[in-house]
Structure prediction request, 611 residues.
Amino acid sequence: MTKLTRRQLLAGTAGTLLLQSCSKQQAASVVTNPNVAKPLVAVVKAAGYTQELYDTVRRILVDQGLNVKGKRVVLKPNLVEFDRNTAINTHPVLVHATLEAFRSLGAADVRIAEGPGHRRNTLDLADAAGYFEAIPGFEDLFTDLNLDEISKHSLRNPFSKLRDVYLPNTILGADLVVSMPKMKTHHWVGATLSMKNFFGIVPGGVYGWPKNVLHWSGLHECIVDLARVPGRTFAIADGIVGMEGNGPIQGSPKKCGVIVAGRVLEAVDATCSRIMGIDPNKVVYLNAPDCPHYNDEASITQTGESPRSVRTDFQLIKEFADLRLA
Amino acid sequence: MIDSLHSNQNPDGGWPYRPGGSSWTEPTVFALLAGYASGDNTGRAQGLDWLRKQQRPDGGFAPKPGVEQSTWVTALAALLPPVDLGPQGHTGAVRWLLGLTPANSSYLFRLQSWLKGTTTAEANEGWPWLPGTAAWATPTAIATLALAKEQRRNPSERIQKRILSARQFLLAHRCQDGGWNHGAMKALGIDARSYPETTGSALLAFGGEVPGVDAAAIAPSVARAEAWWTECPSSEAASWLMLGLRANGHAKAAPPETLKPRTIQDVALRIIAGAGDRGTEIFLA
Prediction:
């Protein structure tokens, strides 16, 4: 029997407990299907938010073999607060480098889209975060997902209590949605990475600020459900400077010096976790039952640096001290 | 600026958040309120017609056509003059607001919370963004304003009790710095910072005659709002700060020109906030 922790209680749903207890039983027994190609995850060193990123990101996309010719691509960064001096938001230079890289690969349309969870004035937030300065024509390229046109979307075999959710047409109509999280610790779920970043696709115009319905429907479960919404995804995690401690808002900047990228979000997040010194086997949403798990390094084809060689332990709050990777 | 509202009214009568978008309830109500504040009734009848169609059988309003859920925007609709919205529609909206209890304020949840020893239960009843969730600062502030208006028209003990509880909720969820953020003043015991926009709207909910709350209790919030005014990052925030401060006796001139309205709603709010006492009366009279 899994011990009931205060955090689980605060998360507020029995579903969380169910997911965790199931996942702990299943995690050890998951065997990657040998007939299915291992996901490719790139770990690339990047010293800072410099011009070199433009070449770095382009090479990552080429190495990953992404065919985006004529496609509609949506970049989904993590924009949280009015702040360009800490490590709360995905850095705008990385987002611009990614935008340029997709354009150079022939994408028909590349948009940037986000729906922050707390602050309503998204364009002002983006301005304060340096997006207008770093990305020419930003306002024309950007969609505020909180206020976008929406459609009702039925979740397939949801883990959470959600059955239907109204979602932005910009996301539902994209050929490829690129999750661009900031690599951060998170005071409710341990780490916020490419899967959790999809909380930002839920429209505040319907669900409010914060999108509290996700907490009441099961936080971990909603992370799994929402990450499965877009038909085709890719992830580029900003781990150049992440956030440790009491993230995702009140933590401290943590230099890590990497970009982590790949097509399979679970594999990217498991890799990010290892780099942060977090055991992915203990991150609840990475262990959902009946979902592919990539918590074992051997289940991923790693390119670039090995996660071990760039491991930079992020400080964990005491409530998540047991997530530390051995 | 009012011309911008005229030109962005959709053919269906409602207003979008962004030019060219479809109509939503929230910007439509704010555009209508801006019309009342500025004494301009252009497009009002069409706007009200559109809005009435968003009312659901439960009395609440949907945030836009096609959304099968009543939400906090019901409180916005309840701010409109009942005679214009329609007395029946107004009464339904007020009834919906009074019937909406945050999920963590229900007797059952509070009992469960007590048994488990958790601290997530709320004794005070604010308002959630939508049913089945917890209460937060913005919907609580707007619903408080709507019910306070109703209380002036049709006083009742039930409404008064709910207003008092909501204001206690706001005070209990005030940040250490005196202002309000979205409604979580601490994260794992660490004080969180307030936001200017929510500080302004929550402060507005304490404007006018407020039984049970003395000026001293609000003084730190006024001070925080004054401080935010000097470092205001958005047009929306500046408008709410103007409204909240004016409602508490600290009138401000127009916000800096550098703060550009980003949405139709920002434009409407700027008009309301810039209408002086008339703008404040939209919420308080």
Remarks:
- The radius of gyration of chain B is 18 Å.
- The first strand of chain B starts at residue 127 and ends at 128.
- The first helix of chain B runs from residue 2 to 8.
- Chain B is about 55% helix and 5% strand.
